[in-house]
Every structure is written in C-alpha cells, then in structure tokens.
C-alpha cells in the first residue's frame, strides 16, 4: 500500500506548519519522521490519519484519494503518544473496540472477535492482562495494548506518534526491538514520529528528517550522518561547530585549518561554511597555530578540549590515547585538522531559510523514494 | 533539646483548632437541627406518623413534589448536558458570559426567581400571554411548579459535567475515530461512560434540591391543595397551624428522600473512581 504525499501545506492560524511536503512510502516499509518539536512531523502523521486536514496538496494511498475519506474509512492503526486507551474498558474490550463498532452487517461474530483478541494478546505477549483496566498497567504494557487495539482492525497503514516517548530507557530499548518484530511479522506499512535520532536510525528502513515544516533529507543513518543535505540537518546531527571558510578549487581553506582530508566539493570559489562534529576535528600541535587550548578535561577515554582564537570557542573531543593528544595541555597552540565535515555555501542574504542557495551535495534535498 | 522541639510541623498550622471549629460548626448548623427533626418525628409514634403521611392531602403534596422534581430533573439532565457540551467544546463570542450566567440560579434569592417567573408567565406577562394563546397555562399549574424547579437546579448538572468533559482527553475520541467509530458511537461508548457518573450524580443532587425547593415554587404554583401544593409548603402550613407533629412528619419524609439521593450520588462517584484510581 504505497502512500504518496504531494506538495502538502498546512498552517495553524497564520503559522506555517507544513511548507510543501513530498514523500512516498512504499508498501511494507518502516519509515521514521525525525525532527525537533515544531518541525511538523506530528501534523503530517495526523493528516495521514485523517485527524487533521491539509490546506493544499494531495494524499494518495494505493491510488485512492484519502483526502476524500474520513478517518473512520481509512482503516489506519494509530498509536497515540499517551496511548489514549479507553479507561473504563478492560484490555480485552479496548483491543476489540475497532471490531465491535463496525456496522452490524460487517461486524464479526462474538466468538470470532474473542478469538481475534486472544490471538493478539498472545502475539503482544500480554495474554495475562486481558481482564485488567488501563489504570492497572505499566507504561510499556499500555503501549502494547494500544498497539494491539490498532492492529485488531488489520490496518492498511500503522501510524505511531512518539511511540516510546513516555517510557523509561530500559523499556524503550526493549519495545523498540519488539516493534521491529511486530512490523516484520504483520508486514504492515509503518510510519512513526520521533525526535530521538538513535530510535529513528535503529528502527527504520528510511529516516525522513524534518525541520520547520519541510523535509530536509531522506536516507539511512550513514547517508544522513556523512552527507547532511542542509545546514539544518548538519546541526541536528551534531555538527555544532560552524567555521567560515573560503572555497578554492573545491577545497575549504581557513587560517589554522587543515581540510586536506576532506574530499573536493563541487562548490564555486568564494565564502562558505564548514560544519564539523566535535569528534571529527583533531587538534595538531603547532607553535604558530591560530587556536589555543583554554580547557582540557578527561573522562578517561576522551579528552574534552576547548579551543579559542580569542573570538570563537570550539569544543573538540579527542581519544585520550590518540598520538595527537600527547603533550597537549592548557595553553598549547594548535591548528585544526578536519577528518570529516559538511560544507555549505555562505548565506548570501540575512536570515530566513529561503536565503540558503541550493546546496550542491551528494544527496538532493528531496527525494521521491529511494 | 527534647524530641518535641524538632517535631516536623504540618503544612497547615493549628490542625486541631481548625478541625474543632469545623466539627462545631457542622454540629450546630447541620447535625443538631437534623437530629432535632428526627427526635421530633420519633415522638409522634408510628401509627400517628403513618396517619399523617398517608392523609390524602399529604400524599397529594408528596406526589406533586416528586412528579414535578422528576420531570424538572429529566429535562435539566438532558438540556444541561447539552449546555455543558457547548460550553466546553466550542469557542464562541460570549462563551465566558454564558458560562458565568449558569451560576445565576445559585446567586439569586429563590423568592426573586419565583416572583419574576410568575410575572413573566402570568396571563398578562411577556411569555404567559402568547402561551395562553396556544392553550398553555403555566402559572398556578403543575407546569409552573416544574418550571420553577427547573430554574433553580440549572447549575447542578452543568457544573458537575463540565469539569469532566474538559478533562476528557481528545485523543480518546480521535482513537475511536481511527478505529472506525461514527460520532454517535463515539459519544455512546467513549464520551458517555466517562461523564456518566458525574452526570448522574449532578442530576441526583438537582433532584434532591428540587424536592426541597420552596421559595421559587410558592409564588408560581398558586398552592392549591390537591393540585399544586408541594410538600415543603404543606409542612410550612402545618407549622403555621401549630401542628408541629404534622410538620415534622412531612419534613422527615423529605429528609429521608434527600439523604437517600445523596447516598446514591456518592455511591455513583465512588464507583466511577474505581477504574480511574491510578490514571496516569
């Protein structure tokens, strides 16, 4: 059941939440919508579910125009962030809800529903909880019940809003592997929303990075990590060091910077910005270096080093046993060697996202489908 | 240093003093009059008591009271549920004013309400005239009694249901939608069970209040024995006639009814709390 979203926009009272979304999700895929809060990811999910409606654009699922269908007629399984279990119904009745509300003609018989619920309770490993009420369950158990309730109607698409957001770390890890299993066994097309990179990359086939109402990049962990498609993605993925550089024959140049290990980029000569992660930078001792160590602390494995040139502060993470670490202490002068990094042309006009000229990078900003 | 010197202090100071004051007040204002009434009733003796409350005029007054209170409560239960729904679910100009108006029947002296209702609905009043043209008379009829009781018990249902509706997680209804439930099914199976205890207990309190309503009713009812005379008024008339036993017997019946309803209301609340103890 492929989902095709085309040029979708949505605003709430003058604030644009989605600014032109194009996305295709293939049948059986597990896709994560990853982004900070306010990036529009939950709104996109709710539009797919039929709980919100876009201002413009189209949503086509397996050839059918879903914007003409009410939420009730889409047959989606939606798992809410706080589960939204019906508090006055037992676990069993919660899971059966979607079957019991069907019109009489389509409603399966009592015995069929009971059997289906039993099957799901076993599948979700909560067979012993059938007669409890939601208030008597732990967070992880409620999450399983919520998923069971969504799966009971055999949804064409499974949508999950921050499925693990309200759980503690251990339960989260546990449920993540379990959800992956559920996805593989049911073969359903699944889209989930998260702000947690680790969760998105570990669980999803493809990750859609969203920022400020746009899709910034689509790809897997390595692609997004190594080749961020925009300044936003670079920053979101942890490249917090921004160095102004000059491009010259495809290489970045700046005083006190050795960028020779970076591959050449197809960028015009001129000003640009180099985005670096603290662990992709190696300080190399140089008595005439531009940077000076202002602080150096160790956690045993890593040295956390703060560098300064008097104006700019840069944090660097260096393995303590790295050869470059020898002799490094407060006051040492160094130059920077970039091991990896992303380069974007300098912004030509003052702020506003529109000012970013089309970045020429290995991965295009938007992809229909990989 | 003695142990008492470092004994942790309660958040509210003077616990024993404040509890004592509360209990004294409850005893003086609520318990003693109720006990006095029960004792007075006990003096009468079962045979005499039975004779008083089964007298045709008493029975008729009780019937009028219970019937009118019941009709008023059913009307209020349905209509005020709608009002609570409108007040919580929609945003519109004047919503806050409408919300504040709900409490007017609490604040208004009931006699004032009775007089204005009588003025409005009498044959030459604003509403009474046109209604008389349609053949509907409210003043000095059972309809008038119902009208007065309806007016004074408006806030109970609204104020009972409103907070529950406000607290109802919208995700519950959305979840039901995604599972294929139509609006009416969502209301019946998701919203109604959530508000039912509050709704029923609000209605029960409204019923209890209507049973004892006096001020608003006496003006509009006309107080015709066997037709529009209510129990509270009959007790008052007995008192005026120095028939203390008759007054006490009728009052006792009203008291027992009210207590039963109150207990029912509390039981509903208690039952509702069962599933929701540990909610989130």
From TrEMBL, chain A:
ABC transporter domain ranges (all copies): 3-237
Keyword entries, A-Z: ATP-binding, Nucleotide-binding, Sulfate transport, Translocase, Transport
GO terms assigned for molecular function: ABC-type sulfate transporter activity; ATP binding; ATP hydrolysis activity
Record-linked Pfam families: ABC_tran (PF00005)
Gene Ontology cellular component annotations, sorted alphabetically: ATP-binding cassette (ABC) transporter complex
Biological process according to GO: quaternary ammonium group transport
Family matches, as InterPro entries: AAA+_ATPase, ABC_SmlMolc_Importer, ABC_transporter-like_ATP-bd, ABC_transporter-like_CS, P-loop_NTPase, Sulph_transpt1
PANTHER family, A to Z: SPERMIDINE/PUTRESCINE IMPORT ATP-BINDING PROTEIN POTA, SPERMIDINE_PUTRESCINE IMPORT ATP-BINDING PROTEIN POTA
Identification of the protein by name: Sulfate ABC transporter ATP-binding protein
Source species: Paracoccus limosus
Taxonomic lineage from the root: Bacteria, Pseudomonadati, Pseudomonadota, Alphaproteobacteria, Rhodobacterales
Name of the gene encoding the protein in the UniProt record: cysA
UniProtKB/TrEMBL annotation, chain B:
Residue ranges constituting the ABC transmembrane type-1 domain according to the UniProt record: 62-265
Transmembrane segments: 17-39, 60-86, 106-127, 139-158, 186-207, 214-237, 249-270
Gene3D superfamilies xref list: MetI-like
Protein localization: Cell membrane
Membrane topology summary: Multi-pass membrane protein
One cellular component term from this protein's GO annotations in UniProt: plasma membrane
Transmembrane helix keyword on record: yes
Entry keyword set: Membrane, Sulfate transport, Transmembrane, Transmembrane helix, Transport
Keyword match Transport: yes
InterPro entries: CysT_permease, MetI-like, MetI-like_sf, Sulph_transpt2
GO molecular function, one term: ABC-type sulfate transporter activity
Coarse class of the protein's main subcellular location: membrane
Pfam families: BPD_transp_1 (PF00528)
PANTHER family according to UniProt: SULFATE TRANSPORT SYSTEM PERMEASE PROTEIN (PTHR30406), SULFATE TRANSPORT SYSTEM PERMEASE PROTEIN CYST (PTHR30406:SF10)
Family, per entry: Belongs to the binding-protein-dependent transport system permease family. CysTW subfamily.
Free-text function comment from the UniProt entry: Part of the ABC transporter complex (TC 3.A.1.6.1) involved in sulfate/thiosulfate import. Part of the ABC transporter complex CysAWTP (TC 3.A.1.6.1) involved in sulfate/thiosulfate import. Probably responsible for the translocation of the substrate across the membrane.
Subunit structure: The complex is composed of two ATP-binding proteins (CysA), two transmembrane proteins (CysT and CysW) and a solute-binding protein (CysP).
Record's protein name: Sulfate transport system permease protein CysT
Name of encoding gene: cysT
